[in-house]
Amino acid sequence: MTSHQSNFWNYYIFSKDHKMIAKQYLITGLIMALLGGLMAYVFRMQLAFPGEAVPGFGDVDSGTYNQLITLHGTIMVFWVGMPILLGAFGNFLIPLMIGADDMAFPTLNMMSYWTFFVSTLVLLASFFVEGGPASSGWTAYPPLSARPEYSGVMWGMNLWILAVALEFFSVLMGGVNYLTTTFNMRTKGMKFSRMPMFVWMQLAATVNFMFSVGPLIAGALMLLLDRTIGTSFFVPDKGGDPLLYQHLFWFFGHPEVYVLLLPSLGIVAEIIPTFSRKPLFGYKMILISTAFSSVLAFMVWAHHQFISGMDPRMAMPFGLLTIIISVPFAVVLFAYIATLWKGSITFTTPFLFAIAMIAEFLIGGVTGIINGAAAADIYVHDTYYVVSHFHFTLVPITIFGMLAGVYYWFPKFFGRMMNETLGKIHFWITAITFNVIFIPLLQMGMGGHQRRIPDPTEFEYLKGMMGMHKTATIALIILLIAQAFFIFNFFYSMYKGKKAEANPWKSTTLEWDAPSPPVAHGNFEVIPKVYRGPYEYSVPGCKQDWSPQSAETVN
Amino acid sequence: MSASTATNTVETEPMLAPHGRLGMWMFLASEVVVFGGLLASYIFARLRHSSWDEFASQTMTSIGCINTVLLLTSSLFIVLSHHWAERKDIKKSGKYMLWAILLGVLFLVFKGYEYQHEFAKGITPLTNLFWSYYFFITGLHALHIVIGLVINALTLREIRKGQNLQRVEVAGLYWHFVDVVWIFVFPLFYVAS
Ligand SMILES: [Cu+2]
């Protein structure tokens, strides 16, 4: 162990403490979220008011438009979802929840963050090179991405590939840490059957990531070779196969959604029992469903490629498996809803975000069934319907899930409470405007509005949809402005918020045994032992309506 | 990896395996998928192009064979190094580790000779898709050999100091993995034609 971490560099910058690393991930991720959100502002303005200069940005030509949507997607998935849901929450909570003093490999943990940080710099650097950043969409399909002359972007795309590869490597290092820590460092009594759902979900997400990302790492290197030395892995002129890239990408891309979804479901699984004062319904059933869907996750990827030119006979099995994979997730969501049943619910901000996550993700899931069935998907493929569908899954997962987690664990992170009133204002505006953005997009997609069109007025049949474009854009602007409530609340509460006690929500899991914030070295004053399962709320015969995992007896 | 000191003082549930071994297994699991995806891509492409049999017959099977033997022997030496590290015999453990490293270096020398020979014949990664795959996959494997050699060299330094002997096993795991990858690469590029 490092002897002492009293000086600034060791404490704030090159920290090996999982709590500080979690904060580094959180802050970096939040800044990137802001950047991703502002990009959405620019291209949504272009869509609603094509040809007019965007206030604060200027003119958006079609090349810039492609760059903005590419980087928006890339940033939101890889630089917001992963660092916050895995990097920040996983790092902070896994050791605390299993009663460990730190991660298994603290140095590796530090290297993981700094690799991530370098990847962020590489991505940001791509904005400033000649030709600007990548413009081939966040999926970077070849042949568009495979030859610089096709998109007019040379170094921006190369840096994009490098940045994504570094980011994957960083998550891989984190994953090794998460798994080893969870398997090896659980405190006495923390059997697997007593582990909080959050830890299980981090575990499942990590496994999903580790077993899916490999082929894409290989694919990314091949793409880089195609672009730089001129090989033809993905370009047809010398026998290469663009479709192969799509397979490599989506073999990772589908599990990647679960890499984000599962931690978010883990966050919600902690919040719902706490605020309904009831045990989590169907703990075992949720675990079985998660395991089942994690296996199926590797067998559905071609549902993204129904019209890509792959063998159409493959559509049937992939479509069928896709419909089947919605069953375990329905089970999980119903288990969460059943937890609420007859609970004594307090509508705090984290709770509101948690149930909004469930409700909105449900819309995402239901709209996805149309994409999963090949015959129906062909009609809406590559339209705003798909855009809306995946935002109805990924926004609840990353944004709502993350915000629920931030509001809930803020006292543990920073030792102070966030303001509830500001939190509720933030919640209601965010939740309402989110729907006002994406419900019109669903309709536009049904109406045949293709995506990735910088100027819809160029097409006669799209002119009737400009009203919906404007509605969505105005809603987005309100949503972005409403985030000021969160940003202010976050930083104000960090310094001036009400001091938090160790267990402000009267919750049961081990992180609430540690002081708020936890002890700098070793988290707990005394490492607790575990005597019971994670969700013993309102146990019959007990006066106190929560029975902490660490309590030997509860009256 | 300084964590082992901390965990000894805290009572925990039974560990699955020592941290280092467990962590390395996890890492290798994801490495398996990298080469798995790559080799699967190559095999599918190969099945579609019957003309590739002819290119595959141009690879230098003799050198491929020698390299296979070199890596297998090197793996054996690292097993012996681990065997003696567990018995705290630093001298013997270090000796076998050195041999494992030397054979790894020899592998690279042969591989380099082979590349040079191919370049001399005018074969490059740009010649056609088969050679792109050949150079990329063997190149990526060679890169793993280099990384393995660095790990082994660092471990050898620890052995000579007589500390962190548990790392010999972890280094060995990685080295075996690189060996196993070659066992798949060798028939796919050198033998099958
Ligand atoms: Cu999918």
Structural summary, described in words:
The complex is a heterodimer of chains A (555) and B (193). Chain A is mainly alpha-helical. Chain A has a single domain (15-513), classed as Up-down Bundle (Cytochrome C Oxidase, Chain A). Chain A contains 15 helices and no strands. Chain A has helices spanning 8-13, 18-48, 62-98, 106-125, 148-151, 155-184, 197-228, 242-276, 283-296, 315-340, 349-372, 374-380, 384-414, 420-446, 466-496. The longest helix of chain A has 37 residues, at 62-98. Chain A is globular, with a radius of gyration of 23 Å. The two termini of chain A are 40 Å apart. With 193 residues, chain B is mainly α. Chain B has a single domain, classed as Up-down Bundle (Four Helix Bundle (Hemerythrin (Met), subunit A)), CATH 1.20.120.80. Helix content of chain B is 81%, strand content 0%. Mean pLDDT of chain B is 91; it is low at 1-8. Chains A and B meet through helix 4, helix 6, helix 7 and helix 8 of A and helix 1, helix 2 and helix 6 of B. Copper (II) ion (CU) is lined by residues 254, 300, 303-304 of chain A. Copper (II) ion (CU) binds next to loops of chain A.
Distinctive features:
heterodimer; A: 555 residues; mainly alpha; Cytochrome C Oxidase, Chain A; 15 helices; 64% helix; 0% strand; globular; B: 193 residues; Four Helix Bundle (Hemerythrin (Met), subunit A); disordered N terminus; binds copper (II) ion
